[in-house]
């Protein structure tokens, strides 16, 4: 099937067809004077990457809709290197939300410096807990995928690409901030929808990166959630509010 072609033809080039995931040597050919011709995939006979003509807003909308073609365009055919910064910012958003949910952060208005520093350390603690939970979630995913499909993660570059895809697919956590700012009676429901959206994005990122079916990524996410919840239970037994 087409799923085997990218690895068998890895020497052809660094780009991927967004339709079949086949390797390509170029996305387009420049005939100068503003004349460009999009390359045709040798495997599926479709345009290698139609998104190179699209406005970034359209690409973002397609990514929000979790279209595999948009994910392949972003992961394989662009040079986006913001996954680390995006991860930190998402963790800060999650830590801020947890920090707001601490009872003493809203009830105690004492201006004493000791109280203020305690609140500040609470935020750092929430950031650390959120980081550990996300790390355990990713570790659960990697262990499951390595156990079930070891041939997919043979090289270090495979791990790095999958990690980059997972980090980029957590962009949905940015919605935590407007959910808190526009607080209303349905905020818990909004947070639940954001969590589900992030998990769907993670599943699509795994599927696109490793060229898998729809079921295996969800297995990996399920075991990742088990490990993440195990870390949460550990913190709760230690008496930490998470």
Automatic annotation (TrEMBL):
It comes from the Eukaryota. It is found in: Endoplasmic reticulum membrane. Belongs to the ARV1 family. The gene is Arv1. The chain crosses the membrane at residues 126-147, 159-182, 215-235. One of its GO terms (biological process) is regulation of plasma membrane sterol distribution. Signal peptide: none annotated. This is Protein ARV. The keyword Endoplasmic reticulum applies. Its main location: endoplasmic reticulum. It comes from Vidua macroura. Keywords: Endoplasmic reticulum, Lipid metabolism, Lipid transport, Membrane, Transmembrane, Transmembrane helix, Transport.
């Amino acid at each position: 099937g087409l799923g085997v072609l990218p690895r068998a033809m890895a020497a052809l080039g660094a780009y991927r067809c967004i339709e079949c995931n086949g390797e390509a040597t170029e996305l387009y050919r420049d005939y100068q004077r503003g004349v460009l011709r999009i390359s045709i995939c040798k495997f599926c006979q479709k345009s290698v990457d139609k998104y190179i003509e699209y406005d970034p807003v359209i690409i973002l909308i397609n990514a929000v809709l979790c279209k595999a073609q948009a994910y392949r365009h972003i992961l394989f055919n662009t040079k986006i290197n913001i996954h680390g910064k995006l991860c930190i910012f998402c963790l800060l958003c999650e830590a801020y939300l947890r920090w707001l949910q601490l009872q003493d952060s809203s009830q105690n208005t004492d201006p004493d410096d000791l109280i203020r520093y305690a609140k500040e350390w609470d935020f750092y603690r929430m950031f650390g807990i959120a980081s550990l939970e996300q790390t355990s979630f990713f570790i659960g995913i990697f262990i499951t995928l390595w156990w079930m499909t070891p041939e997919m993660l043979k090289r270090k570059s495979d791990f790095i690409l999958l990690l980059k895809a997972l980090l980029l697919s957590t962009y949905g956590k940015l919605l935590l901030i407007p959910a808190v700012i526009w607080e209303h009676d349905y905020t818990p429901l909004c947070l639940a929808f954001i969590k589900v959206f992030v998990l769907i994005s993670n599943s699509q990122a795994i599927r696109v990166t490793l060229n898998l079916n729809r079921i295996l990524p969800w297995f990996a996410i399920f075991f990742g959630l088990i490990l993440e919840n195990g870390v949460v239970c550990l913190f709760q037994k230690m008496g930490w509010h998470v």
